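As the next step, I wrote out a protein sequence along with its fold in token form, included below for the reader:
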Amino acid sequence: MIGSLRGSVIDRDGPSDKSSAQVLLEVQGVGYRLTVTAATLSALSAGGDAFLYVHHHFWEADQKLFGFATRDERDAFEGLLTAHKVGPALALAVLGTYSPPRLAQVLADDDVDALCAVPGVGKKTAQRLLVDLKSVLVLPVLDGSGSSDVHGSEDRVLAPSALSDVREALVSLGYGPEEIRKALAGVDADRVEGADPGDLLKMTLRVLAGA
């Protein structure tokens, strides 16, 4: 299972639509072809060095690599795949339309019309996605200034890397997405600022324990 790749961008193909594109990344003499979002493609230059977070997707008779410039984007992609009837193409279409923080805001606002802006998504599909995604995604959300904030909270700002570290740790401990979302929202905002992932994890576990 490939989780990340670092190498040189040998070739990049612009997206046939705004949801996805292709890059060829050479890693120690081996070329890996990855499907990426338009946002990730814009951060890559032919001949330049790149580090990509990777989702290695398997079908019954095929496999494919999807590359992402940030871990939050990969986390969002993998969360989208867990929703009912959401495959890689639709997950990429969603991320091609909304960044993870903006998607979190759409879910927080129950914004059906915003989801209908995703290519291939009608109103019925958007309504189903709202229900499914709110139960499986834990994403940073934009506050009024455009900063990242935890889905469900109002005033705090967390570094995306710290949020991802804590989320991964809680998942490994067996907590579900809804439990994680509520626990992060329940951490005292005054204690969050400047907290490292370890301290934030301890605070979140205390919330989960009801302390």
Remarks:
- Confidence is low (pLDDT under 50) at residues 142-160.
- The longest strand covers residues 4-13.
- Residues 47 and 122 are 40 Å apart (CA to CA).
- The radius of gyration is 18 Å.
